[in-house]
Structures are given as C-alpha cells and as structure tokens.
C-alpha cells in the first residue's frame, strides 16, 4: 500500500510539473519581483496606528501571505499537501504568527501562536462553526445521510451535541466504561502474548502501530455500539477488515480531492475511492446499529418497556429518545473515526518516545507498579496516583496533536485579532502543530520532556505555560466529545503495557531484521521479576521493520504531521527483564 501511495504521489507530481509552465505564465518573474510581500505580523496583541494615541485596526488585505499561486505550488508542486505540518513551520518562520492563504475561492487566516488562538477561541460564540468539512458533507448529501457532530452546524449542532454528550463527557460518566475497556485490554494483552510466542525471537512484538490501531477500533466499537467486532481474533472477520481498509481509503484520497478542482473528479480515481471508502464505513456502522435495534426490540417484546435494562451508550441514546435512528446513523461513524485515530496515534508515539528514553520508561514502570502491582488490573481511580503516566500522554499529544490543524468561522460578528479587524464569516485556521512547539512556551520544544507537566517535580522544565499552548482536544463547547473516554482508554492500556512489558526500538535498514547497535548477538531471554520489586532492566534485540514511521505501518491511518520516526517501537516482555 505504501508503494501504491508513493506511485500515486509521483504521478500527481509529474502532472504538476507539466503545469508549472502555465503557472509561470500566469505569474511571470518580473511580476513576482514587483509584488510587495507585507512584513511579517508581530506577535503583539495590538498594532499601532499613524500617530500618537491613534490605534488603527488593520484589514485582511494587509496580512502577509504566500499568494494564491505560490500557495498552490507549495501544496502540489513541493508536496506539502501531504505534510501540512511542515508548511505551518515554514510559513510561520517567513510571515510571523498570522498570515493569509488563498485556496480557490476560500481565504484562510492562519494563526500560529497561543495568544492568537486564545483571542479567537474566546470569541467563537454559542454555536462555533468549523468550515473544513465540506467534503464530508458532499458525501452525506449524495447518499441522503444525516449530518453528524463534525458536519452539522448552528442550532441543530447544539441539539445534537447535547444529546451525544450524555454518558460521555464527564469523567464520572467515562468511568462507567472502565470494565468494558479493561475487557478489551485483557484481550489485547492476551493477543500480544500470542504474538510474542510466535515471534522469531520468542519475546518480541514489532509493528506496534498496527496492533494499537486494531485495539483502538475494537475498544471504540465496544463503547459506541456495545459489540465486539473481532479485531483481536484470528482470523479477523472480513467485514471488519473491509472497514479498516475503507478508513484508509477515505482519508488517503481526501487529501487529493481537497485541493484538486472538481472538474478533475471524473478524470482521476481519487473522488470515487473517497466515496467508496465512506460508503463502506457507513454500511459497517448501519449494520451494528441495526443489530442493536433488533436487540432492543426483542427485549421490549419479552420484558416490556419498564424492564428493559440500559446496557450502554447507543442503547441509552436510542431508548431514551436522545437520538433518532437516522441521527445515530449519521453521528456514530464520525465518532468512531475520531476515537480510533486518537488512541492509536498517541499510543504509538508514546511507546516510541518511552523506548528512546529508557530512564523515563523505568520511572514510569516504577510509578505504575507502585500503585498497581503486577497481577492487578488498574481502575479509573488509580490514575489519580500516576501523575507521570498522565504527563507522558500529555507530552505525546503536545508533540503530535491528533488534529494538527483545526478551523473556526466566526459568523455572528466582526472580530478583532492582534490589531486586525476581520469581517464576519472569516475562516481562521488553528496551526496546533507549530503552536505546541513554540520555544517561548515549551523550552526545548522538540524534545520529549513529560516532567514539564509536573509542577512539583524538580525535573519540571522551566517556562511559562499558556493554556492554549497545547489543546489537543480542543476548547469550549465544541471540544472533543470523547476526550474522557480516550484519556481513560490510553491510561488503562499504557499502564498495563508498562506494568508487563518493556518497549524498545528497531532500526529501519530495509526488509531484513537488524539488531539495534549495542544489543547482544541474540535477543535476551525473558526473566520474570518476583513481585515486581527488582530493578527494571534489559537490552534491546532485533526487530523487523517495513516502514519508517508509525502512520505508514497502519493501513488506515490518515495523513498526520510527524514523519520522522526512523526506528519503530516494539515490545519485549515481560517487564523486569
């Protein structure tokens, strides 16, 4: 699949090279030289006017930016369409913390500093609008499907979100799913044990990104649809495999159809593949919802309405009138996609950085087994005593926000930001990736330092934290609906992994297995630690890698910012080697 994706990208770049002459004709070199690029906007909250005491608000036309043709060339000619996080870094360095870009008829005001994000987010109003889901809406309109929480807007969104918030948003409500999530974690740990036994070394599991994806899919389906779908079984059911492939198909092709003009849709395969992916996703969700409706109907016939027991999230929504069947069909597939990506992406990068920093990994192991000794299963209340575990996840989300770019459209009023006055319906783009790596907020921003989140720790990094410096789950009434579930899910899984296994890294020399430098000639033999009291030690062994980064190792991951993982994480077990 990686080769096919690379081939498609090469073909697209080849076609774009043929168009460069036309682009150059539209914007000759002389014209480029004469075009004045406004100075970069300073990061101050106000812009002075023309005289003493005069404070003139500047306009959208005065914002710096690359210009439409230049931006198009950056996206398609230079390949940033698949690496938008790098484009954030590039444009912020050139234009400052606020710049404008034009993509066809759309104008975007890009915000790349925490104070600017705060200014806009605190003015977003009762019904925050995000205008970056037009492609999703096109599919819903074509198929006659209801909009979900990511695609609907206004008062209808408010009503839908209020219904979906039930049994999901509060920590006390998320805690209700602890047993269900631990059930999936138990099966995942058994699955890892089987993979360990089948591995060439007998004590290693590579390709953990792939395993995390299937865990996350199994867990979120169990929460939303109250049904196990077999992601951790042997073999995986065919309809589940088809669903996983369709998610990758939809995300991968959405990148291309976002920026290619509509007249290319009949000529290129991307649009059809995009629609086919969504159709399979919704077909999969519909099947699970239909099964739940049949279960409810059977209970009503046998027990009566007063004796039906509310078993879970979907059951609650359908039986309490919180959501119509059509609304459930439109909403739950969207929640499913968000839930899978958050957990799998974050867990992969967390394991990667713990493997790169064995001293942090050892400290985390000590913390976990000090609260939950080996053989015991963590509960939600235990994480109040695991500050380092929470900090590891927060630091991972800072470095690799699951949503590196978000947007808002302020529809109710004009808005003032950083000395500029923007009209109603201006679309703002939140550049979360570059904001969360701001050295003024996070010293040594490229390094993995979970201790920076521990206020009382002597190892805490210096710096002035800003509330909007890292907001991986969003802010306000449109913040992530499943945040508490995702946090609990990752805490339960990471604590069990650290309790029982040790993470390590394997090099990427090619398709063959290679040993990590400094490792013994043969992988170490597992040694159990009685009572978990012995020091946590061990050495890395050999691991077979097929890809350089975690997003590539999972067939259905959407494009994401980081592509710099040169060695991939694996597990060796049990802990205490």
TrEMBL record:
Main location (coarse class): mitochondrion
A molecular function GO annotation: oxidoreductase activity, acting on paired donors, with incorporation or reduction of molecular oxygen
Pfam families attached to this UniProt entry: p450
Membrane topology: Peripheral membrane protein
Residue ranges of the region described as Disordered: 516-577
UniProt KW Membrane keyword: yes
Biological classification of the source: Eukaryota, Metazoa, Chordata, Craniata, Vertebrata
Classification via InterPro entries: CYP11_CYP27_families, Cyt_P450, Cyt_P450_CS, Cyt_P450_E_grp-I, Cyt_P450_sf
Family note: Belongs to the cytochrome P450 family.
PANTHER family membership: CYTOCHROME P450, CYTOCHROME P450 FAMILY 27 SUBFAMILY A MEMBER 1
Keywords: Heme, Iron, Membrane, Metal-binding, Monooxygenase, Oxidoreductase, Transit peptide
Cofactor: heme
Protein residues bound to heme: 480
Domain of life: Eukaryota
Organism field: Canis lupus familiaris (Dog)
GO cellular component terms listed in the entry, alphabetical order: mitochondrial inner membrane
PROSITE patterns per UniProt: CYTOCHROME_P450
Name under which the protein is recorded: Cytochrome P450 family 27 subfamily A member 1
Protein localization: Mitochondrion inner membrane
